[in-house]
């Protein structure tokens, strides 16, 4: 509990640093007032709006006011949607979680059997195919893979929808697109971890006692291989969010990634700031969760 409390307290300065970086980038990106008023707005109207939202204040005053509002959950109002920015982000977050969870499930279902199979059949044709597929899967850009899947399954075969959200069929192509690169990374990691563990003395001892190979692999070897696997799964949170930016745009998936891209294009800075802070908090909490799971999987690990 002491470790968890310390880590939770460390989140505060990290989020402050992120908030400063985001606010600085937004500050130097330009004046958003031009997008908030019609083209025929007078200079007097522009200055009046700037003063009403505090853009005439010095940088440090604006940043202090921003932090004070964020602590209260107020990221400002989106001029595009005409409502609180945080509420807009919360509305889109379930769609991103749905896509991310589906992508992780696909990645795990592919990576675990292929990683173990590749390790137990080292230097065989199966190993060559699995490692080759992992390299190709990691090398393929998300946007290219998404477009190819749309052309084949939606345009040519007509069996899956091109874009949008609403049914399980809409989820298949985006989840495969987002999960392919993660599955490739996980497969390589499980293979290397299993190869290292399978050469340990206690594995050879278990085999010499006549324990079945399946039991040795899954009960003894794979359990210990889970520790680095949990690491990469937790760290893939940032990859998932980053990949979601592209995947959601390609498939018009109404998640936080598409929202962030649209907000950047329209310079809706309240939405941009809310999205970035929520994403940062999710990544930090997932890393904390990974540390806690380490301790559960291997009690020898000390949470220092």
UniProtKB/TrEMBL annotation:
Keyword DNA damage: no
Membrane topology of this protein: Multi-pass membrane protein
GO cellular component terms, A-Z: plasma membrane
ABC transmembrane type-1 domain mapped to chain residues: 93-290
Coiled coil ranges: none
An example Gene Ontology biological process: transmembrane transport
TM region positions: 12-30, 99-120, 141-162, 168-184, 225-251, 271-294
Keywords tagged on the record: Cell membrane, Membrane, Transmembrane, Transmembrane helix, Transport
Subcellular locations according to the entry: Cell membrane
Keyword Transmembrane helix: yes
Family indicated by similarity: Belongs to the binding-protein-dependent transport system permease family.
Protein name (database record): Peptide/nickel transport system permease protein
Upper taxonomic lineage: Bacteria, Bacillati, Bacillota, Bacilli, Bacillales
